[in-house]
Amino acid sequence: MGHALTLESFDDVETEEIAPLRTFEEGYEEGLQAGIAQTQAEIGALNAELVQNIGNLDFGYVEARNEIIGSLTPLLRAVVEKVLPHCVAEGFAGQLADLLMQTAEQDASAAINLHVHPGQRAAVETAVEQTATQVILHDDPSLSEHAAWIGHQRTETLLDIDGLLSAITETLGAFYQEENRTKTNG
Predict the structure, then answer these.
(1) What is this structure's pTM?
(2) Pairwise pLDDT comparison (45 vs 15), residue with the higher score
(3) Domain range for residue 167?
């Protein structure tokens, strides 16, 4: 009982091209358009999320900066208002003596004219004696207590530490006001 296997030959048979059904093409086109629309919507959502995250980073940076500045401001104010003036009062004559020595090193042949506030005369005289430079000391009440005008040959130098402290205080005050304005106005 054997069954003989029979195979059909397709060698010479012409096949006809079967065109896709119109409904298949319409469905394919609708699916493609829906996929493109969904992808564009996802890209738009991702772009919006990226913009929001960048905005959040910026806000986080500004917020962190304001916190740091706010916490450092009392320390900086204390340094400028209490520590620096004390350092200036203690070290003014020594700084001035160092500056006089530098000036004398350039040309020691001529005397140095030094104008200081009358309240600093004694301290400056003591400091100048230790430098062994030729200095002509003048009282100048128009100068602040921690300021000196040095004239030597064709050069003039103004050492104004009080002005420097004032500028530092003003800068810190502006910085502090900016910090408060940022906190108040967001």
Answers:
(1) 0.53
(2) 45
(3) 47-185
